[in-house]
Amino acid sequence: MNALITRGVTKRYANHTALDQVSVTIPERSIYGLLGPNGAGKTTLIRIINQIINRDEGDIEIFGEPLREKHIEIIGYLPEERGLYKKMKVGEQLLYLAQLKGLSRKQALDRIKIWLDKFEIRDWWNKKVEDLSKGMAQKVQFISTVMHEPRLIILDEPFSGFDPVNAQLITEKILELKENGSTIIFSTHRMETVESLCDHIALINKSKKILEGPKKQVKAQFKSNTFVVEHRGNQLILPVERYELIKQVPLEDGLYSTTFKGKEGINGNTVIRELIDLTEVHSFQEVVPGMADIFISLVKGEGDEALKKHLQEA
Amino acid sequence: MNKIWLIIQREFLNRVQKKSFLIATILVPLIFPAIIGGLVFVAIKEAESAKPETVQVVDESKIFEFKNTRKFNFVSLDLPLEQAKKAYNETQDFALLYIPAIDINKPEGVAIYTKENPSIEKVADLESLIKNQIHDLKLKEYNIDEAVLKSLRPDVNLKQFNITETGEEKSSSSGMLYGLGFGLGILIYMFVLIYGIQIMQGVIDEKTSKVVEVVVSSVKPFQLMLGKIIGIASVGLLQFTIWIILISVLSSGTLAYFGMKMPQRQAVEQVSKSFAADPEVQEAMNQQNNKAAEFLANMSQIPFGKIAFVFVFYFLGGYLLYGALFAAVGSAVDSQQEAQQFQFPVTLPLLIGYLGLFLFILRDPHGPVSFWLSIIPFTSPVAMVGRIAFGVDDWQLILSMVLLVGGFLLTTWIAGRIYRVGILMTGVKVNYKVLAKWFMLKG
C-alpha cells in the first residue's frame, strides 16, 4: 500500500500558482525525499498534506483513504519554521501537544516518558524551554513530532540547528521509526542527507513536480555513460567515432586517469572489451551522478535530455 | 470541541500560574481599601476642622443680631475695637468681626481680623451672613413683618421622581445613577482594553516563537484563535471575581474599623451636643435623617438584578467583539511595535464610547447621541452599561443586545479569515490592502 498519493494537487494565489498539478506517490515504509529549490512549493505541498491550508484542486489519499480531518492524528509534522512555547515547561508542553494530537492524558504521559528516556533527558521535565540551548530545544521538538507514533512523519529540514552528534542521534531515531513501520517524508536541500537516507525522491521546481522515483532508478537514468579508467602510459587513444574524451590527468608511478563518455550503443562491457586491447587497465568505473549533480542540472535546466528519458521510462 | 477545550485550559492555566497574575490579583484589591482608608482619614480630619468657628463680634452699630450657624459661633464683645483686638489675640478663636456704627444704606468699614489667612469660602460665608442681615433689616424698615420675611426665604430641596409609563412614581437620585453608570462604563472599557491587548500579545508570542505552525498542524487556526480568546476571558473573569470578593471584604473591613470615627456621625454628635436646644438645628437634623432614608429608598429602587445581568452581557459581548479584532491584529504583525499602527484604529471606537460616556450619556442619558452610542455594537458595551441605570426601554436594550451578538459574530468571522493567513506569514510588510487580500483569500 502507498502511504500517500496526491493527484493533480494545485494551489493558486492571487499572483502566482504555488503548486501546479502535483502528483506524487509515496510508498509505505519508505523514506521519501522531497527536493527542490527555495520557493518551489515544497512547503505549500506539506502544509496541504497537514491540512493547514486547503488545496484548490486535486485529490489526496492517505493509507488508502481520502484525506480528512481525523488523519491529523496519524501525521507527525516538524515544520521548518518551528518553535515551542518559551515560558512552558518541557513536560507540560509535550503533554499539551500530544493531547492536541488526540492522545489521552495518560497515554501521552507514558509516551513522553519513553521518549525522554530514549534521549536520556528525563530530568528536563520541569525545565522551561527558554532555558534550553537550541540543540536541546530541537530534541524536545523532535519528540513532539513523533511521540504520538504517527504512521506518516513529515520532516521539513530536520537537521538545521543540530550539531553532528545530535544529527547522528536523530538519524538513528528516524531509521528506527522506519523499522517500526512509519513512512517518512523529508523536505531538504541537503543532498548528503538524501544520499544516505532516502530511498525515494521527488523534485519540485517552479511549482511543478519534474521528477519522481526510487533513488537508485533516478540515478541510473541520469547516468551519462561516462567512465573513468586508470591505466599505465599516457597514450590512450579512443576511437572518436565511439568515444568523447573529457579529461586525462597523470597520477603517480606513470599511471594516468582518463575520463570519457561513450556514444550511442556503448556500455560498460563494450568499453572494457576495447580498453583491454588499448592499454594496461588498473581500475575501471562508471560515473554515477550524485543527487546534488542531478538536482543542480535539473534546476538549471541542463538535464533536459536526461529528464526526457526519465519521463519516457516512467 | 475537545481541542478548543485543551487550548482554553492551556491559556488559562499558563496565565493563572504566573507570579504576575498572583501579584496583580492580590495587590489591586489592597489598593482600594488603602484609598478608602485614606479618604476616610482625610474626611475625619476635615470634619474635625469643620467644627463651628468662633467669631468675636464688636458691633458698634448695635443693629446686627448674629445667630449661631453650623459653621460659626458668634460671641458678642462689648469693648472698643483696640481692646477687643488684644482680647482676641489671647484666644484661639477664628476671627474678630468689627462692625462700625454704620448706616445700613451705606454699609462701609466692616472688617475682619484673623490670625491666619482665612479661606475665601469662610470669608464669603460671613459676607453673605452680613448681607442677609442688612437685607432683612432693610425689609424691616419697610414694615414687613417677620413671618412674611421667613416665608420669603423658603428651604428648597428638590425631590426627584421618575414617572414610568404605568404612571407609577419612582423616586430617583441622579447622583447615584451617575456614579453607577460612570463606574460600570469605565470597568468595561478597562477590561476590554487590558485583556484585548493580552490576546494580541499572546498571538504575537505564538507567531514569534514559531510554535504556531506546530499547533495548527493539530488544530484549525480558528479553533486556536477562539480557544485563546475564551481562555483569556476566563482569566479575566476569575481575576475580576476575586477582586470583587476581596474588595468587598476588605472595604467592609476598613469601613468597620473606621466606622466609630465616621465623620457624619461625629458631626451629628457634635451638633446635637451643642445645639440640642435649638429647634432649627433639630429640624435640620431631622431633615438629614430623612435624606438618609431617601438614599436607602433610592438604592432599593435601582434594579440591581437587571443592571448586573446587562453588565455581564456587555462585558462578555464587548470583550468578544474586540478580542477577535485584537487577535487579527496580532496575527498580522511580527512584533508589538508593528502592532501599534493597527491597534489604534481598533481601539478608536472603544475610545469613542468611553468619551461619549462623559460627554453625552451621563449628561443626557436619553438624548439621540446617547441612544445611538448605546445601539451601535462597537460603542454599546461602554455606552449601554453607562446608560442602563438611568432606565432604558426594553426594545432599545434588546435591539442593542442583538446587534452586539451580531457584531461579535461578524468581527470573529472577519478576524478568523485574517488570522488563518496571518499567523503563517512572517516578514511581510502588512498594510490594509494586504489585510483585505488575506480576508478575500478563499479557504
Describe the protein's architecture and organization.
The complex is a heterodimer of chains A (314) and B (443). Chain A folds into two domains: 2-219, P-loop containing nucleotide triphosphate hydrolases (Rossmann fold, 3-Layer(aba) Sandwich); 224-286. Chain A contains ten helices and 14 strands. Chain A has helices at residues 42-49, 90-100, 105-118, 134-146, 164-179, 191-197, 215-221, 268-278, 291-299, 304-313; strands at residues 2-12, 17-27, 31-35, 57-62, 65-66, 75-78, 152-156, 183-187, 200-205, 208-214, 226-232, 243-250, 255-262, 280-286. In chain A, a hairpin with a 4-residue loop joins strand 1 and strand 2 (17-27). The model of chain A has no long low-confidence stretch (mean pLDDT 87). Chain B has 443 residues and is an alpha/beta fold. Chain B is built from 16 helices and six strands. In chain B, the strands form two sheets. Chain B has a four-stranded mixed beta sheet with strand order 2-1-3-4, with helices on one face. In chain B, strands 5-6 form a two-stranded antiparallel sheet. The longest helix of chain B has 39 residues, at 221-259. The chains are: A alpha/beta (314), B alpha/beta (443). The interface between A and B is medium-sized, with 28 and 24 residues.
